[in-house]
What does this fold into?
Amino acid sequence: MISVLFAVAALYAQAAPDADRGAAASAAPPASTAHGVSGVTVTGETAKKRAAPDPKEVVCHKEPVIGSLFPKEICARREDIAERQRVDQKTVRDSQALRPWKDPAGD
It folds into this structure.
């Protein structure tokens, strides 16, 4: 019984946006100009997103601590975080390449 209710709710949720979209599309006429180009507003926001972040900027994020339920907040410069990631990834690659427990003849 409850599965039927979930199925009906899922179908209703999928069907509702289509009805709203059709009503909105018929109410608003398509925008056109003399040159056949639709009106577009350009803001400086996209330029900020495309610009490379400042490597000297200090950013904070939370990292999980092994053996604790509480994450630790780490604040560092972007370039320091990137360097730490490079070193950590190199360490993992090196340790996986060694694999002393794996028989080289068995590859």
